[in-house]
Amino acid sequence: MILIVDSGSTKTDWIAIDREGKVLFETQTLGLNPQVLSNNILKERIVNNFELYKFRKEVEEIYFYGAGCGTEPPRILINNVFTEIFKNCDKFSIKEDTYAAIYSTADENSKSIVCILGTGSNCTYFDGKNIDQRVISLGYILMDDASGNYFGRQLLRDYYFNIIPDETSKKFKEEFDLDAETIKNNLYKQPNPNTYLATFAKFLINNKDSDYGQLLIKRGFNLFIERQILQFGNAKEIPIHFVGSISFYLKKELEECLNIYGLKVGNVIRKPIDGLLQYHQKKLKHSYH
Questions:
Q1: pLDDT in tens, 73-90
Q2: Does this model's pTM top 0.70?
Q3: Between 3.50.20.20, 3.30.428.10, 3.30.505.50, 3.30.420.40, what CATH number should domain 2-101+272-287 receive?
Q4: Which end of the chain, N or C, is less packed with Cβ atoms under 10 Å?
């Protein structure tokens, strides 16, 4: 059994296939970001899943693509967790989620820029074979422009600074618990503060047509374009692909911002797991021929 795993900070998609590429089962767990979660929490989130625990001894290979896996220490942490659970597995491939975005959107042997706009955000140049990620992410506090947690942070700040227009502010208060103590508890005492912040982005998506919503969305996208995409000199000559719920649900606004900068949008998908499945099925097929 082979497991293909796409993990964001919020949720993780799992697909199990056999050696012929046939899908055995699909399941989902909470996010497995090793930058913000401990060994015990990571392990707990996996073994609490019925299918994964039931078939843990049958797993022979794992291909894991995860948020927070851009450097060696978090990759080692994930590897250690998997080794404890999937004891008969003899092949672990652990890569950052950038690779999942590339494999699910970009054409092999074609140049493109691939961006993730989900709970977090990043941007990578793909030359058809290799990747070039020039900005090293310093995590959700300092980076992640135009991501779910970025927009959540802006909404909370604007609410407490009384910048949100009255009618929109009232709706925001009705939909979320905006008590200061609740917010501080979730940000500073609970795990996954980045995921907590990203939950507020749903409000922005649902109210995107308001003047305030349009201003906030376009300000975030313009920041991302200027700081991430335009660092690549040929950005205006190649397609720019996007993965993640923010880019998917705000595609119209994203395209408008890209057009202003003379940039061309490529594929925009919400979840890379389906594209990853096809990528690995194709690899399996080639390995047997």
A1: 999 999 999 999 999 999
A2: yes
A3: 3.30.420.40
A4: C
